[in-house]
Design a protein that fits this description.
By secondary structure, the chain is mainly alpha-helical. Helices cover 48% and strands 3% of the residues. It folds into two domains: 2-33, no CATH class; 42-189, hpI Integrase, Chain A, CATH 1.10.443. It has a two-stranded antiparallel ribbon with strand order 1-2. Residues 34-197 form the Tyr recombinase domain.
């Protein structure tokens, strides 16, 4: 928002032929400079979901974790078709428009009965306010991570599953470039080793000739 505001202000200054340095207010944000946080493990995610007693918020938490949604997107889903799509979720609108998302882990759809839709009764004038309602609930419950951390955890999980980067980016509503810049910085030696072991265990992988 800072960069967008400064971009508009720079154009206004240009039109007005006014001498003013806008660039010094634009900041130096970029996806590659996002500070890396400690993400919750899948075990911690499941544990915290179990601590939530309110059925609607329990469902909301499960959807965020299983589909890597932005917090406000919980309120913009095609829930009429959801039970008929075998776990595939259609996001109707949001920051980046309509898209389809596949569950990771798919077992959570059944374990957490996500097909039994229970949307929290929140109101908000816009997506920002809807997202704030979700964040406020997390804070009130003392949850040790933020709603967006569930989205980040989905992104890392997609890599652990071996989901192609372009597909993961599309499901998250990103360009491939932004997805790589944002999430590949989270990959550590553990993830690299997991990926290598998956390659080795692939029965169709090339085999070195032996003489």
């Amino acid at each position: 928002m800072r960069q967008k505001t400064c971009l508009a202000l720079a154009k206004l200054v240009e039109i007005a032929n006014f001498d003013f340095d806008v660039k010094r207010f634009s900041g130096n944000y970029s996806p590659t400079k996002v500070s890396k946080r400690e993400l919750p493990s899948d075990e911690a995610i499941a544990l915290w979901r179990g601590k939530i007693t309110h059925p609607q918020w329990q469902w909301c938490f499960g959807m965020l974790a299983t589909y890597g949604l932005r917090p406000h997107e919980v309120f913009h889903l095609d829930l009429e078709q959801f039970p008929k799509q075998g776990g595939v979720l259609r996001v109707m609108e949001g920051k980046t428009g309509e898209r389809r998302v596949w569950p990771l882990h798919p077992e959570w759809v059944e374990y957490w009965q996500l097909m039994d839709v229970k949307v929290p009764g929140c109101t908000g004038r816009n997506n920002k306010e809807l997202g704030q309602r979700v964040s406020q609930y997390f804070r009130r419950q003392g949850i040790e991570f933020r709603p967006y951390d569930l989205r980040h955890a989905w992104a890392i999980r997609s890599m652990e599953y071996g989901l192609e980067v372009s597909l993961a980016a599309k499901q998250m509503g990103h360009s491939v470039a932004i997805h790589i810049q944002t999430y590949h910085a989270w990959l550590d030696e553990h993830h690299q080793q997991q990926a290598f072991e998956r390659l080795l265990n692939n029965p169709k992988r090339p085999v070195a000739p032996v003489h």
